[in-house]
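Memo to structure team: turn this sequence into structure tokens by end of day. - J.P.
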Amino acid sequence: MQDGIKQRCHTPGAGRNFIGIDGACDGVIDAVERFAVARLTDGGRFPPAGAVAPAHFPLLGQLPVEFLPVEDDIRVRGRAFLVRVADDFVIGCDFESDARRIMEVLPKRMQKYGLTIHPTKTRLLNFSKPSRGASKGASTFDFLGLRHYWGKSRKGKWVVQRKTSPKRLRRAMRGIRNFCREKRHAPVKWQHQKLCAKLRGHYNYFGVTGNYKSLQTVCDWAKRQWHKWLSRRGAKPLSWERFQASILTTYRLLTPRVVHSTLAVVG
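Reply from structure team:
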């Protein structure tokens, strides 16, 4: 399969990268080859739909079940690929005309199997690499809870970067708030264990290169919410200074950390 991916994805060709159905092009291709082939095989077999591999690159590490070049089904001029993750997928094309052709044919293909495409979540967008003088990329998209966008590396080069999507960030913060409110009367040691488990799971999934700021936002939010609801479980309010000295000193929350380095993938 690795030879097939190399043959399909590294054929000569030029053109702009157009993305159909929410996706990125070269970065995803490299990620699939690097992670899906090298790390996620189990005895030569790929995990079935629904399987989870949480220790790997979040873009592919949840349910990397399929990598199918689109050329076999629909005739295209340039490179094209499809990555399906459970019921979500991205299709990347070199040329806009190819992307529009796929968008035209795809609903009919899905209908043959009794499936439909979501009318609002399905979209065609230009995810071309920005020009040298541009200030930002033409568009962004969310995939697997991560917002993908073009940003500049420390060397000033345009690279595909990722951060927690606003929707998933709000969901994580809401979950922490609800937990602290509902369990405020539980023992502090138990609360600390559960909060650390929640933060660990969040870091393990969203801890990608360039996303440290979003991770820190969740960590700071957890501290503020924990203090807020602990101070409401007794008659005497718990000051922030006392919370830091008596609670956070003994029960430190996990600090954010980048678990998945994507520099080798998108650099």
